[in-house]
């Protein structure tokens, strides 16, 4: 399907981020790209949405004064109706683990597209803690962009999206040449803490500190283990997140 795809690109870092520009440039080699992205940074807003949003045109595409979910709805519903695929990213920072999926604006954009029955991919770039504040240029996103292009070019129409509603891709440290691509599952690991100091409670996500060591407890098939080992992680996911069985709940409800 190379060259024939209509691709809607969005993100949660905002339309001015280098990650979305790198993604749009890379995907333009395999299809017609329309960018519909937040006007400013909307990281970690999850699936928050609006009833009305202002839109303006930029050199890259449409800037929406709203959330990533708003961008997908506005894009699919009006600005770029029913594309072949929606791609969200490239996010500065990884979106790893089950607990992150609902928080991430990047992942939430892909989930929203899935509800429209449009194949979608969320793509993110892992940065170790010591590199988090570093300003990244477009080139830093190269291997994440190439990996995403590979999925877009080959997954759409291949049957992949008959088995998964969306894919969550995480590329390793940009200073590390990726050692291939691995199918993964989101890690179940979780380590949030809270400490009160007078009128304030400090909330800390300690999972990122646990990424700094090769003694990571996550299993070999997890997204976190893959990126630490220098591989590109791709997790096939479904929306909504429903269990495969609920016999015990049926028994409980029947007893009411």
UniProtKB/TrEMBL annotation:
GO terms for cellular component: cytoplasm. It catalyses: a ribonucleoside 5'-phosphate + H2O = a ribonucleoside + phosphate. The keyword Metal-binding applies. Its cofactor is a divalent metal cation. GO terms for molecular function: 5'-nucleotidase activity; metal ion binding; nucleotide binding. A divalent metal cation binds at residues 12-13, 43, 91. It comes from the Archaea. Binds 1 divalent metal cation per subunit. SUPFAM superfamilies: SurE-like. Pfam families: SurE. Residues 7-189 form the Survival protein SurE-like phosphatase/nucleotidase domain. Its EC number is 3.1.3.5. It is found in: Cytoplasm. The keyword ATP-binding does not apply. Keywords: Cytoplasm, Hydrolase, Metal-binding, Nucleotide-binding. It is an enzyme of class 3 (hydrolase). Its main location: cytoplasm. Nucleotidase that shows phosphatase activity on nucleoside 5'-monophosphates. Belongs to the SurE nucleotidase family. This is 5'-nucleotidase SurE. It comes from Halodesulfurarchaeum formicicum. The gene is surE2.
């Amino acid at each position: 399907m190379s060259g024939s795809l209509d691709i809607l690109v969005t993100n949660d870092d905002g339309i001015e981020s280098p990650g979305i520009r790198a993604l749009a440039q890379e995907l333009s080699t395999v299809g017609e790209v329309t960018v519909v992205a937040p006007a400013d940074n909307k990281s970690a807003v999850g699936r928050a949405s609006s009833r009305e949003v202002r839109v303006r045109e930029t050199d890259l595409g449409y800037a929406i004064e709203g959330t990533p979910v708003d961008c997908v709805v506005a894009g699919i519903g009006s600005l770029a109706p029913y594309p072949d695929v929606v791609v969200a990213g490239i996010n500065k920072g990884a979106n790893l683990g089950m607990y992150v999926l609902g928080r991430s604006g990047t992942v939430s954009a892909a989930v929203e597209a899935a509800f429209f029955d449009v194949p979608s991919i969320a793509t993110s770039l892992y940065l170790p803690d010591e590199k988090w504040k570093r300003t990244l240029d477009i080139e830093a996103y190269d291997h994440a962009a190439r990996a995403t292009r590979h999925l877009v070019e080959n997954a759409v129409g291949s049957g992949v999206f008959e088995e998964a509603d969306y894919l969550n891709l995480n590329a390793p440290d940009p200073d590390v040449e990726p050692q291939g691509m691995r199918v993964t599952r989101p890690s179940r690991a979780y380590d949030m803490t809270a400490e009160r100091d007078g009128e304030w409670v400090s909330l800390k996500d300690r999972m990122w500190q646990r990424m700094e060591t090769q003694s990571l407890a996550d299993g070999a098939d997890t997204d976190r283990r893959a990126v630490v080992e220098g591989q590109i992680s791709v997790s096939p996911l479904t929306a909504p997140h429903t269990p495969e069985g609920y016999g015990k709940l049926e028994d409980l409800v029947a007893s009411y």
